């Protein structure tokens, strides 16, 4: 009853420690800024050092304590190094946001095994390794935790333009979300995924422009989005804060589609 009377307190993550990987990318940078603005302490990881430093500075400007590591979660050693910073500097992570990942688009007949494996390693293996490193620590501490993975509407839906690697990888992320949601259900660790459709970012900016290609692509997407628009960064901020806070304590193993109804039709 106290939680209901103090409904905003359900979303309070002040003082929590959040690890964000892929922090220099569109979703990772957004996640870092949202969590910093909500009062979390941060460990930010990314392979691009300059962009990572810029994100860290913007988070520090909002008053957040921030540690960085210019490293991708490609191996067990990488993942351990990322989580160890949270242990050493802040006493351990409460929240893990896995925003690192990649795409490679080509018809299956033109995609090599090496290219396919690179997508699977970047989106699936690294996510699994990070979850394991986080989970082992969280289980040992016994105070629960929040894991937020990044999936895609393409984890549920196919795509005709050569997405055999990406769709497969995001379906695997969905499966990992459900499996760990079940495995860790009684431990107080929740595992959920945000699955967006196209939202505004440096990589998708061309879709929002009034060029011939941008307009044609946008109109094709909008024909299948009930909300009638493409996504904006703030459309992902609310779901992230919900899944990172105790407001979502009874939610685990869920794929939350931030897609304007795209996957509903």
Give the arrangement of secondary structure elements.
Layout: H1 2-5, E1 17-21, H2 26-37, E2 41-45, H3 49-61, E3 66-69, H4 76-90, E4 95-98, H5 113-141, E5 145-150, H6 164-183, E6 189-196, H7 212-222, H8 234-244, E7 255-258
Parallel strand pairs: 1-2, 1-4, 2-3, 4-5, 5-6, 6-7
Give the tags.
265 residues, alpha/beta, Rossmann fold, seven-stranded parallel beta sheet, 7 strands
Head-to-tail CA distance between termini: 37 Å
The CATH C-level name of the largest domain is: Alpha Beta
Order of helices and strands: HEHEHEHEHEHEHHE
What share of the residues does DSSP label as strand, in percent? Answer: 5-15%
Q: At the fourth CATH level, what is the homologous superfamily of the largest domain?
A: NAD(P)-binding Rossmann-like Domain
What number is the mean pLDDT? 93
Order the strands across the largest sheet as they lie in space. 3-2-1-4-5-6-7
Structure annotation, total helices: 8
Shape: globular
Q: What is the structural class? A: alpha/beta
The low-confidence parts are none
Number of domains: 2
Largest sheet: 7 strands, parallel
Counting DSSP E segments of at least 2 residues, the number of strands comes to 7
């Amino acid at each position: 009853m106290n939680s209901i009377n103090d409904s905003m307190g359900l979303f309070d993550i002040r003082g929590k420690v959040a690890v964000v990987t892929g922090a220099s990318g569109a979703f990772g940078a957004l996640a870092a800024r949202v969590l910093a603005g909500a009062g979390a302490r941060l460990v930010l990881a990314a392979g691009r050092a300059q962009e990572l430093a810029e994100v860290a500075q913007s988070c520090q400007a909002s008053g957040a304590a921030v540690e960085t590591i210019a490293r991708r979660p490609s191996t067990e050693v990488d993942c351990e190094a990322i989580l160890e910073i949270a242990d050493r500097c802040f006493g351990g992570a409460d929240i893990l946001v896995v925003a690192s990942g990649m795409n490679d688009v080509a018809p299956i007949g033109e995609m090599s095994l090496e290219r396919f494996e690179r997508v699977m390693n970047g989106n699936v293996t690294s996510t699994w390794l990070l979850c394991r490193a986080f989970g082992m620590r969280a289980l040992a501490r016994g105070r629960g935790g929040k894991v937020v993975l990044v999936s895609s509407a393409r984890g549920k839906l196919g795509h005709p333009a050569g997405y055999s690697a990406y769709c497969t990888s995001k379906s695997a992320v969905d499966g990992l979300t459900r499996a760990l949601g079940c495995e860790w259900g009684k431990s107080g660790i929740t595992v959920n995924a945000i699955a967006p459709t196209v939202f505004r970012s440096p990589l998708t900016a061309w879709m929002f422009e009034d060029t011939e290609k941008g307009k044609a692509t946008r109109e094709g997407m909008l024909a299948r989005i009930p909300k009638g628009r493409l996504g904006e960064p703030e459309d992902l901020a609310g779901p992230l804060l919900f899944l990172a806070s105790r407001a979502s304590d009874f939610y685990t193993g869920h794929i939350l589609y931030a897609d304007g109804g795209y996957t509903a039709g």
